[in-house]
Amino acid sequence: MHQDFTLLWASLAGHKPERKLKGLVVWITGASSGIGEELAYQLAKCGSRLILSARREDELHRVKRHCLETSDLKDEDVLVLPLDLLERTSHEEKTKTVIRYFGHIDILINNGGRSQRSLFLETSVDVCQALMELNFLGTVSLTKQVLPRMTQRGRGSILTVSSLVGLAGAPLATGYSATKHALQGFFNSLRPELTDYPKILISMACPGPVQSQIISNVFTEELNKPVATVGSQEHKMPTNRCVHLMLVGIANGVKEMWIAQQPFLLFYYAWQYAPTFAWFITDLLGRKRVQNFKAGVDADSAYFTKPKTS
User: Fold this and answer.
1) CB of 159 within 8 A of CB of 107?
2) Which family does it belong to (predicted)?
3) pLDDT of residue 10
4) Residue 286 included in any domain
């Protein structure tokens, strides 16, 4: 199997998402594309009431229309709420808007953010700052507004979409990996602060490579420089499979989910249980990845594609 054994067990013997999540109010950031968009579709089919947030309001309305067309939800069950994670001063009012509309928030899914494809020696520090402001501080800011509402009710769930590079680093993603490490440290430290609230779940989803549009919007060496090559997506886990496993995890109270196809999942088990060996493998694969990236092969397909030759 290509997923963590905990998720495998939960999917076979535990609570089914379509039963556990029905009727719950779920706020999704980054809901206009990729994993966030697929989360909206699958949660709609589960019968969850949704708040869809991202910067692009027109895309959010497109996602809402699809949710309504493919589920039993009514128009009033899906709130489109444009949100910029960088505008932290707006997060309090956005949260109040959700509370006024639905009365409470059962689940916050921190999915918004951007990735990176660039070598650190060629990357502006401004890129690292932008990544940290968006992926880390934006997520912390919204969590800061939502969590007190959950402690008042004594229940709720916060699912944050981290990454396998939040557990072990990867070349070409130094800044991005740092933000995911920061999220892991933050939420792993927050969880034991909430021991007086046993019905509040702090959960981390750590996907490996997933078929998503995130690559087309990555940071590169400079803030406004687009990525040169998106590359093949065929070797990555399908987005719908990744999202299904996330929902299985949250329906069954899983605190950390490793979601990846092989050989990526095996690599991170090596990091967990045999770190000295993992360092050796990291050096070998990292060198290959950087060489292929310099040759013009997209980073995500570097392990599966030979470098271009002239």
Assistant:
1) yes
2) Belongs to the short-chain dehydrogenases/reductases (SDR) family.
3) 56
4) no
Structural domain count, the chain:
1
C-alpha 48/C-alpha 28 separation (Å) is 11
What would the mean pLDDT of 291-297 be, rounded to a whole number? 76
User: For residue 243, what are the contacts with CB-CB under 8 A and spacing of at least 6?
Assistant: 35, 38, 39, 42
pLDDT, tens digit (0-9, with 9 covering 90-100), for 103-159: 999 999 999 999 999 999 999 999 999 999 999 999 999 999 999 999 999 999 999
Amino acid at 270: A
Residue 217's domain comprises 5-263
Q: Cα(305)–Cα(307) distance, rounded to whole angstroms?
A: 6
Active-site pick, 41, 101, 176, 197: 176
pTM score: 0.91
Q: What is the torsion angle, in degrees rounded to the nearest 10, for the CA atoms of residue 97, residue 101, residue 106 and residue 109?
A: -50
Count of other CB atoms within 10 angstroms of residue 129 = 12
Name residue, tokens 């933000």.
179
Strands 156-161 and 107-110: parallel
Residue 269: active-site member: no
pLDDT in tens, 158-179: 999 999 999 998 899 999 999 9
Task: Give pLDDT, residue 32.
Answer: 96
d(CA 267, CA 274): 10
The whole-number average pLDDT for the span 8-18 is 68
**Does residue 290 fall inside a structural domain?**
no
Domain assignment of residue 67, yes or no: yes
For the domain that residue 144 is a member of, what is the CATH number? 3.40.50.720
Answer yes or no: is 132 within a domain: yes
